[in-house]
Amino acid sequence: MDDTVSARKRRMKPGRAAFALLAALALPVGAQAPLTDPTRPPAEAMLPLGALPVASGPHKPQLQSVLVGKEGMHRAVAVIDGQIVRRGEKVDGAVLESLTATEAVLRRGNKKEVLRVFPLPAAPAKAAKN
After folding, report:
1. Cβ-based neighbour number of residue 8 at 10 Å
2. pLDDT digit string (tens) for 30-80?
């Protein structure tokens, strides 16, 4: 009789057994995956200057933002390559001719260049016919 009582005491309850099993399975996974710091800069930011390849070809200005005042587009300014530009002002040798909430038109002499906050995707390259 003593054997059956001691066997009952030694047995683990089903809920505790399941918890122990899950804890045992979870530990190795958690121990293997290192925690990363979400505020750490990307690896590219840690490289020395000049280590990243520079795009070749002429520099194309980038429209980063359009700021619209309370009066609407009459007080709008564009942020192009980090510079705040108003209509009629120059940026990179071009004059900001017109501005909408999503586009800026630059004029270089008689050529116009349209900059978009969200550029259109590049057209896919056409396959060469044989």
Report:
1. 8
2. 555 677 888 888 777 777 876 666 666 777 899 999 998 887 777 889 999
Q: Which token pair is 87?
A: 């209509």
Buried b (16+ CB within 10 A) or exposed e, 55-80: eeeeeebebeebeeeeeeeeebbbbb
Residue range 69-83, pLDDT digits in tens: 887 777 889 999 999
Structure tokens at 6: 């001691």
31 CB-contact burial (10 Å; exposed 0-12 / middle 13-18 / buried 19+): exposed
Cα separation of 122 and 104, whole Å?
A: 19
Q: Which of 78, 123, 71, 124 is nearest to 99 (CA)?
A: 78
Contact 97, 106 (CB under 8 A): yes
Q: What is the pTM of this model?
A: 0.50
